């Protein structure tokens, strides 16, 4: 089956999908016109809400930045000063050079773990989700419940056996235990992708199959292109997860050259040592920026699910 | 979309056609990464924890078999088990629906056609990226009984606020309140779902004279139901495992008012050195979550709108 | 509808079982379960106090091979350790010391490594873990090594540190440095109010009357800092200073039912509830550091705060905590121990002996500005912060009268019982006399069974 066949089927489905209603341009315009006034008011309300909630949601970030800029003496002032005077920019330098930490190494380590983990989890989870969403085979749904159920047992009781397992494999103090398992799919992402794959009409597959397309081909040429938003969402979730995860890396990694950024942040507090909140916040602020930047620039990809519009119904 | 299609291959057993056989093989091939990963990395630790739930094990001494004693003790002689179960069920029952409603509300707000939406989206996602431990200081201040921001605001409208985190009665509500801050994940999934709703459907409803509420009730909600369902299932699983906030901020107090089940389990594993008992607690929790999830799967049929079937017609 | 019914049933029974059975095939299971037991490693001959007194196989003539690698794990910071390793290698160039800084989740990681039988050769353990590991034979008896070490002078160590880790006749760890609780006070607030500074031999009554003079609760200013009620060990000081004890010396009995314990706890619970000299938990919650921000004049806290006080620019001084019957305070420390599973115990001892010895512990304690566990090291005043004027001489004295955080068996469990009771007393829900006898009985029961 050629790509053009698939595309023609695709078009066909789009047209059929529109059977719900075909709007005439004129009718559409009149609706828009009559609603314009209401829209101005409505937009006003939306902006007020966005700004108000935006401020509430920005509090933790503002707090971090403001604490990061405080001198030691100001950190504990209650009620807090949101605009400290003077701004101690030096804290940012101190935080990232504290105790001779090789922060550049931590950045590299974390990036390697996050990027490899994300690539693995996106590829494998989408393959698995395809199997669960679009193929029919005995035992499928029971296995799917098993997928879900692996999320239901708390990590606290499987951590020690997992540690022993990776010790037997000789993988301790390496990145393998942090990356390799994700190459076999993660239940959260499998579930999420499966849900999205299920919203793509089955007709596409059926038509392609009649043309003799294999499942792998359907996966690559129909499902994946139509699921970019979901895949991007999975990638973001996975990236943020790897970036911030610290308990498991802490448990399996030993030498400081292998530390991740999250472990570095954790090292700011310690038993019998006074936590230096301003430095901690300065480091946290810098280290969360990659997540924010990534989110900001990729949201267009994963929030605009418009590719699917009109495909269903 | 519901979790299982009727043609799941479980109930019906017509003669295996060639295509069905092919699909079966293909299906298992597609999910094989997960199956392999499950067998290699997950199954061992999971079974180990099940086996250990029949042992007494301090982690530092050899385990010894005690049959069902852990389970018997849990139900007959451990008031904290019941207390923590009650705390967790209350938390899940209140916070999961609240989180879903709030996340949906934010998603709808962010789905409006206004300027700067990408900035607001990033803004609303912020609290989900900020590391929890660093922010606990901020929360402690927000909930400060005398001069904390929340009680200041309440005083402004003439209410004398409670002592929040140091009050036996209000500590749990305070933690539920905090959980609303970090709904970035579900919010994004809702956003993706919202943008998936065909524009034509809304416009058709508008032409039919449907008001905002009717449109929301009869178009948006049904179209979103698969995503709501996803967030509900995961919210429940995550809700039961919640303990970080309580661990960091209240340590389960005051007077065990925030002794979450997962926190109690964790304390048993790594503070009381009763890993066997913790495993038993984990498996009881596992069964509770599994039962609730299966009930949800069953109920889903009545309210989750299933496009997949429509497409197949 | 019945469709789904059946489906769910099917899943929950047949297929789920299938899945579970499939798992059982995994060889991983047996590997893991098998490994849950390496800890049982029978007590090695060196660690058995009764066995073979004739042939101590210890500092055996076996010379240390030219190249050995050992691992040293600790929780706080690796900066001073790097320097220690450098100095150590001048004497023992053949021993490579890998540093394993467990910055977070220390307890969890120690327990996990112990369960897996992969503890680092030398590990610096907190008080309760040290003794638990000693009881479980996770770490070895150091006495035979000490006996063979000609330059090791036990008398140099404060008794409290040397004797604490002695469990069932085994010395399972050696302490290097420590921090203990004092009363820190804000000199400016004292001077402004015209209140004379506290004397080192002050009593609880003095404390209360001084704090009263400095308190203006209406203005959210208090003479005394609040009591951190979730911190159980903090309250032990009140029992000790009142002449009581929490446990008997061999941890077989809980003594919280004695009048010293009951009265001591109730005294401070009353002060907290009256809220005349100190803020209540609700008033203090979320206020951050009340002492650093000048809202309280006296702050009873561990000596690790000193550096922070200097950094915050506070004008402060230090004095021992007040007493009622005895001068007591709380000491925090850690014990360096050698894992039973270590393959290079001789090299491990060489390092441990250096780390807790005069040279190593000075490098460590002077970095953190802590007192050391050796009297000779303290002559070099490692805890003094340069150019800061304070009664520094009080700091090491606590080594002579303080008590280390107790470490009974089943420590987590018995402390949970105590915390719950103490909390009820501090919140005014119960009187100490009502709850402590019951707690003491329950705790004793657990201790006897252990």
Explain the overall architecture.
The complex is a heterotrimer of chains A (313), B (313) and C (450). By secondary structure, chain A is mostly helical. In chain A, 69% of the residues lie in helices and 0% in strands. In chain A, helix 4 (103-134) runs antiparallel to helix 11. Chain B is an all-alpha fold. Chain B contains 14 helices and two strands. The longest helix of chain B is centred in the first third of the chain and has 35 residues, at 18-52. Mean pLDDT of chain B is 86; it is low at 1-13 and 309-313. Chain C is an alpha/beta fold and 450 residues long. Chain C is built from 19 helices and eleven strands. The longest helix of chain C is centred in the first third of the chain and has 23 residues, at 2-24. Classes of the chains: A mainly alpha (313), B mainly alpha (313), C alpha/beta (450).
Question: What does this entry show, briefly?
Answer:
Chain A is 69% helix and 0% strand. With 313 residues, chain A is mainly α.
Topology, please?
The complex is a heterotrimer of chains A (313), B (313) and C (450).
Chain A: H1 3-17, H2 25-68, H3 90-97, H4 103-134, H5 140-149, H6 155-168, H7 176-179, H8 187-198, H9 202-210, H10 215-226, H11 228-244, H12 247-252, H13 261-266, H14 277-303
Helix pairs in contact in A: 1-9, 2-14, 3-14, 4-8, 4-11, 8-11, 11-14
Chain B: H1 18-52, E1 55-56, E2 64-65, H2 69-77, H3 79-110, H4 117-129, H5 132-142, H6 149-156, H7 171-179, H8 184-196, H9 199-207, H10 212-241, H11 244-250, H12 261-270, H13 275-303, H14 307-312
Antiparallel strand pairs in B: 1-2
Helix pairs in contact in B: 3-7, 3-8, 3-10, 3-12, 4-8, 5-11, 8-10, 10-13, 12-13
Chain C: H1 2-24, H2 27-35, E1 68-74, H3 79-91, E2 95-101, H4 106-116, E3 122-126, H5 127-135, H6 143-148, H7 159-164, E4 166-167, E5 170-171, E6 174-186, H8 187-193, H9 204-214, E7 222-224, H10 232-241, H11 259-274, H12 281-284, E8 296-302, H13 306-311, E9 316-319, E10 330-338, H14 345-356, H15 358-368, H16 375-378, H17 394-401, E11 403-404, H18 411-426, H19 432-449
Parallel strand pairs in C: 1-2, 1-3, 7-8, 10-11
Antiparallel strand pairs in C: 3-10, 4-5, 6-8, 6-9, 6-10
Helix pairs in contact in C: 3-15, 10-11, 18-19
